[in-house]
């Protein structure tokens, strides 16, 4: 049982390049989330999904797109990377968003945009 | 808009000391509050979850309290150990929206 995994662990991009971050979970969770974490700030929600085929915007969605074609996978795309997107990206999943449900986090992807 | 604040931003204590980390939030209409631990270069691990109807939760040397009316939570760590050194984040959940504090970086010196 691997939990939540993220690919890749590190990436360096040039401004304007595109890339996709992959998140996978093997806990049969309905909910999946993408966050970014910047120095001195808490995690901020980018996009989330409440089930296969659904996506919704979080607090900071601009410049990112997501897809949830399979229940176990949640992809985060950057179409035209900008230096402001340099950050550590975390994926998380949960069974639901009820008051007893906790989120399980992946190890993170450190992205640098030059 | 929910704002979550954690004070202090950093804390250094000698081994064996009891300590308290603080978390405050501006909107009391929450589903739950969670405390997470984050080790350098790693993801977050959930430590304690307090439902909105509860006032505290305990796990081993950790005790978390919740006072919704004042918008405050505390994480109490008893008999701190060097292995407790990490960043501790609190987060509040309302609907599908979880908001995090910036964290308290704790160092426990041997």
Structure description:
- The complex is a heterodimer of chains A (114) and B (110).
- With 114 residues, chain A is an all-beta fold.
- Helix content of chain A is 0%, strand content 48%.
- Chain A is built from no helices and eleven strands.
- In chain A, the strands form two sheets. In chain A, strands 2, 4, 5, 6, 9, 10 and 11 form a seven-stranded mixed sheet that branches.
- The model of chain A has no long low-confidence stretch (mean pLDDT 94).
- Chain B has 110 residues and is mainly β.
- In chain B, the strands form two sheets. In chain B, strands 2, 4, 5, 9, 10 and 11 form a six-stranded mixed sheet that branches. A five-stranded antiparallel sheet of chain B has the order 1-3-8-7-6, with no helix packed on it.
- Chain B is globular and about 40 Å long.
- The mean pLDDT of chain B is 94.
- At the A-B interface, strand 5 and strand 10 of A face strand 4, strand 5, strand 9 and strand 10 of B.
